[in-house]
Amino acid sequence: MNRENTKNAIAFMVLFSVVSLLFAGSAAAMGLSPSRITIDSALKGETYQQSLRVFNLEDSPVVVEFNVTDNFTGWATFYNADDLETPITSGEIPGNGDSFFLMKIHIPEDTPNGEYTGDLVVKTAAGSYTGTETGSSVSHGIKSRMRITVTGDELLSGEVLGITIFDAEVNRETRVRLQFKNTGNVKENPVLKADIKREGSSIDSFEFTGPDFQVGELKSVDFSWDTTGNPPGEYTADVRVYLKDIMIHEEEINFTIFERGALTAFAELMEVSATENVAPGGTARIYARIWNRGDIDITAVLKAEVYFNGELVDVIESDDVYVNKDHFGELIAYYKPETAGVYTLKPEVVFEGKKITLDPVTINAGSGTGLTGQVAGTGLEIAVPVMILIIVIAGVVLVARGRSQPAWKKYSGA
User: Fold this and answer.
1) How much is the pLDDT for 127?
2) Cα–Cα dist 162/159, whole Å
3) Which domains does the chain have, with CATH numbers?
């Protein structure tokens, strides 16, 4: 190889290496759980569901698309784990993180009995990466093998994972929590029945019918029993769980009814935000999210004094929100400033005779609108492609100049 060709080859190799480094990482590193999905004794006309977890091992977020192959085309729909009403075809996975989804599989009524196989395919959407992957049009996929056996036999089966009756105060409701998993092949509604006893004598009974549990679904449901008229003391509940007329679980549970004020009401503020800017006459919002960490259910309300030019001009409050023990509650109050200027709100969360005082927030009634916490873009989505283009042009110019020079100059100094 002569020296002209050698220099051209070196220039090309350098250019190729730089561009390759810029695109390093465009091959997605992902994971999918479970790796196999099996449904035995699936019933025609029924809907089954499977939780999915998708992992992204790259630094940048990625958008993935969901699909099924072979026999399952038209059988599957996908949902975000926190919204089981709105079907999706794709979802976003954060960088170095994971996201949960749900796949619902509906077996058509006219499906013949037999075993069906195929794949669940999760692949990156072309151009879905941000940062160093901007502009990439390469898609990469992972699969989970699926096998479904369709039968005409109905299997009614369920597993009670736990029943809890929470202590309460007199004249308050006590909560009953049922944790149940549908292990059959048809939709089920568990029925919980209980006889309440005090000092060995039966004093009351109750019966609750649970919501629909789809095949394979596991969740907790809460019921309530009103303690009104029952004195403080120790109580026992003989609890039974039925699927249709078949009893699948029975146990005895002890709980206590206390005097009012004996149990602790306690809530922790988890998040607060407010509209920073709003046009005069527009609506500003103040939001608080609390966690009930006390011993009883609580009723909470968000209140705020509104000050303008140092004077109290209004008092606003949210609707009352009932928050179960160990649950979160969201409180929202609204205010419409009529005059341009800066308003100061002094909010507090009030519950069961207690309160959480929040830091003051300001609302600017002017021309701009927006919420706290908004972040502008970094500009990397433009910078990276421009840098690649500059390097490519520079490489082309270098190669062209090398070819246009006379032989004597190429070899000078040799």
Assistant:
1) 65
2) 9
3) 29-151 (2.60.40.10), 158-258 (2.60.40.10), 269-371 (2.60.40.10)
